[in-house]
Specification:
By secondary structure, the protein is mostly helical. The protein is built from 7 helices and no strands. The chain is globular, with a radius of gyration of 19 Å.
């Protein structure tokens, strides 16, 4: 009987998938670069299989990110429970920010495609104008929903 994946392995898999997708790289291509099947890459991304330190280093090199990238935003409760001890006193005090997966839709295909399209715009001035437009539209939408009874 299979047990549930370790929450830290699941956490590490999310930025792996995010970065791979942002680069427009398929699971198959990443698997080829690692000498693995795309199914193994899928298991890494789901957290079903644990990624060893040498493989994590290799992933960082291929995806052009530091190894720490895979642990960014690791919730404190996961970090403290990982080895059966608390990291209290070693970590900075929490800012009170509660990480919520639904608050950051970075793993949605729509978001990834938007980011890729944005960075394909060669002219920095056009990119900046598009960014400002998106912010203005979001602000208008917020104000309109705040004005509703």
């Amino acid at each position: 009987m299979a047990s549930k994946p370790n929450p830290i392995d699941v956490h590490v898999g999310k930025p792996l998938r995010l970065r791979r997708t942002l680069l427009g790289m398929s699971q198959e291509r990443l698997g080829e670069l690692l000498g693995l099947t795309f199914q193994q890459v899928q298991k890494y991304e789901r957290g079903a299989n644990r990624i060893g330190s040498s493989r994590l280093y290799e992933l960082g090199r291929i995806l052009d990110v530091p190894v720490s990238f895979f642990f960014d935003d690791l919730p404190e409760e996961l970090a403290g429970s990982a080895a059966g001890y608390s990291l209290r006193g070693l970590a900075e005090e929490s800012s009170g920010f509660e990480h919520q997966d639904h608050a950051l839709p970075l793993d949605r295909r729509e978001t990834l495609e938007l980011v890729r399209a944005y960075y394909r715009i060669a002219d920095p001035a056009v990119r900046k104008r598009l960014f400002e437009l998106a912010k203005a539209l979001a602000n208008l939408a917020e104000r309109a929903s705040a004005d509703e009874p």
